[in-house]
Amino acid sequence: MTTLKNVIVTGGAGYIGSHVIYVLQKTRRYKVISIDNHHNSHPAALDRVSKLSQSELPDDATDADRESTKIESYKCDLTQPEQIKAVFEKYGKGGIWGVIHIAAYKAVGESTQIPLTYYANNVSATVFLLQVMADYECHRFVYSSSATVYGTPPVIPIPESTKLQADSPYGKTKVMCETILDDLCHSDKSWRAISLRYFNPAGAHPSGQIGEDPRGRPGNLLPLLAQMAVGRVKDATLKVFGNDYPTPDGTCVRDYLHIMDLASGHVLALDALAPESKVFDANADAFFKAYNLGKGKGLSVLQIVDAMRKATGFDYKYEIIGRRRGDVPDLTADPTLAEKELGFKAPANLETMCRDLWNWQTKNRLGYDTQ
Ligand code: WQD
């Protein structure tokens, strides 16, 4: 039987995590172990991913293929090192091939109100995870970072060489963890790490079986618009946070990419950590790199509203209110480094993102809480 590589995905039951697990399973080369505290996710998502992967198995699937569609799931709080250790202990030293660390709190505004909670959950937890990985001889790490590390960037589109200058505690947690990874990889070349700076993921798997289902009212624009259109969010009017930005229509511009393209970028990054990969120069001081995951195309809030109006048929009303703390005018990626070095591509367009988001939301009006 082909030997599958055990990979831990933290935040595996979440929006990004569940789509990353799906694409990992498609490779038939990895066996996924999910760690999640379900703070902002639903265990049902993991069952859905497995069922989706199993439904796509070929008739001549091998035992290893079938095994690759199963998920071993642990409810675990990453701020508790003992809980992390208990998971790694089940697989023994060298038993985990790599870790994709997605679990984090991610609301910019919230992070300004409860910074200590963000530093504990996003930074301390990452340190604890890396320490346990070292104890269990696991040295391959893909890190979920964010375009918010750039703060208000001086150049658009934004290259990875841009100075990191996050404005919010959330963004600073991402900068701190990238710094920790850089120092760790410089200290010990047995470590290989890639940080993925997400721009704005959107949409859902085209089957509508998995999708974005944050607990409580969505903070992000697209899931909010989708929930407004199905009546899950009762607001009749969208509040647009400012139209006095230096952008074409005055509203903020962001780089939206399809969640499936973002998820595929994670497999490319994980594969790049393999010893035979050419991504890292053998003579480099450290095996650590950061890549933007974006399309390189900026779209404004009003353009998104218009696209969702077309996709859903819902007649969105909006009112312009004051700016939201932590928002910056434009976060549009220069995606060329990931395209060149990882072979990353983000071909899906806005219409496809909105169509797949709407397909998910109409099939799951209450998200994963189907009762
Ligand atoms: C998009 C635009 C808002 C809601 C977030 C996270 C970031 C990253 C990506 C993880 C902004 C405007 C929104 C509303 C609005 N996640 N908006 N009314 O802020 O670009 O990034 O997701 O890495 O960490 O912060 O996405 O969807 O919240 O906002 O006008 O009710 O929509 O001002 O300009 P954002 P978003």
TrEMBL record:
N-terminal signal peptide: none
Matching Pfam families: GDP_Man_Dehyd (PF16363)
Gene Ontology molecular function terms on file: UDP-glucose 4-epimerase activity
Role played: Mutarotase converts alpha-aldose to the beta-anomer. It is active on D-glucose, L-arabinose, D-xylose, D-galactose, maltose and lactose.
Protein name as it appears in the record: UDP-glucose 4-epimerase
Superkingdom as given in the UniProt entry: Eukaryota
Subunit structure: Homodimer.
Family classification: In the N-terminal section; belongs to the NAD(P)-dependent epimerase/dehydratase family.
EC numbers on record: 5.1.3.2
Catalytic activity: UDP-alpha-D-glucose = UDP-alpha-D-galactose
Associated pathway: Carbohydrate metabolism; galactose metabolism; Carbohydrate metabolism; hexose metabolism
One GO term (biological process): galactose metabolic process
Keyword tags: Carbohydrate metabolism, Isomerase, NAD
Organism of provenance: Psilocybe cubensis
UniProt cross-references to NCBIfam families, sorted A to Z: galE (TIGR01179)
Enzyme class: isomerase
Any one annotated GO CC term: cytosol
Domain NAD(P)-binding: 8-356
